[in-house]
Amino acid sequence: MRDVMPTPRGSRLQWPGLVSAWAWLPPHRNETMTGSHQVGVAFSGHRDVRVRSGSRCSRATYAGGSVICSGNEPIVWSEVREPTDALEIYPTTELLASVGGRGRAGGWPVERAVVGGTDPVVVGLAGILRRAHVASAYVSETAASGLAHLLVRHLLTEYGGQRLAPVPGHTRLSRAQVVRVTDLVSAELNGSLTLDRLAAEVHLSPYHFARAFKATMGEPPYAWVTARRMDAARRLVTTTAMTVAEVADAVGFANLSHFRRVFRSHAGAGPATYRAEVGLYRRAAAARS
């Protein structure tokens, strides 16, 4: 019985202030395109991909969880050797102008494409929207609007260098605090990451840390940590020969049944099914090469 190549999947969702587009594509040599004026996350890692934006051509290698930010030109991809799992976010010009203020015309803050960047805020927000695409996670219009405003403020300040007035009642973590906390999470995904421990890393009380973290990252600390554990679990399931139990242990889950349930809620399928589907992509690509 021969393997049948799975059909590429994707969806596009309209939210208040932005549009999100998710795609899962097989390895391909032909060109695919990411539109201009978007920020997103490649949840799959890639090696030696051909990248073209405007007149600039290059090769790129980046890990899963890397940020892809378009400039004023689309990004054209080709010679992609691995399956692609990516979420693109397109904020509206109206929201950019509204948040930017000062009579700005809603200009995009990034002139040239950024491929393979590190940005835990964007990764977290993209992860929330990705779950709505792949696992039908519910995101209300109010929550989506809040995420859109948070994302645009982040883009304008961190990528565009704009100085925006603080949002009243929303104490945020500094850039240095975000780095300290997210580095701790990345280093100890298989350990005990309690609220007390995360708060102590940046010398805040658990109460104030939880409020500041959500205002900065768009979701509570426990949800963000769980999402990063599931990102790592998907990568281990699809790129290693580890058993499901070994993957669960590697990302901090002692209860295998609980791990399977959480994995399904983030990936839209259980770990065995998810591994089998990605395996079909890889075997079909190898057969064509």
Explain what you see:
- This protein has helices spanning 93-100, 120-134, 141-159, 175-187, 195-201, 206-217, 221-239, 244-250, 256-267, 271-288, and strands at residues 9-15, 18-25, 32-34, 39-42, 46-53, 56-62, 66-69, 75-78, 84-91, 114-117.
- The protein has a 6-stranded antiparallel sheet with strand order 1-2-9-4-7-10.
- It is globular, with a radius of gyration of 19 Å.
- By secondary structure, it is α+β, with helices and mostly antiparallel strands.
- The model is unreliable at 1-6 (pLDDT under 50).
- The longest helix has 19 residues, at 141-159.
- It has a domain at 1-165: Jelly Rolls, CATH 2.60.120.
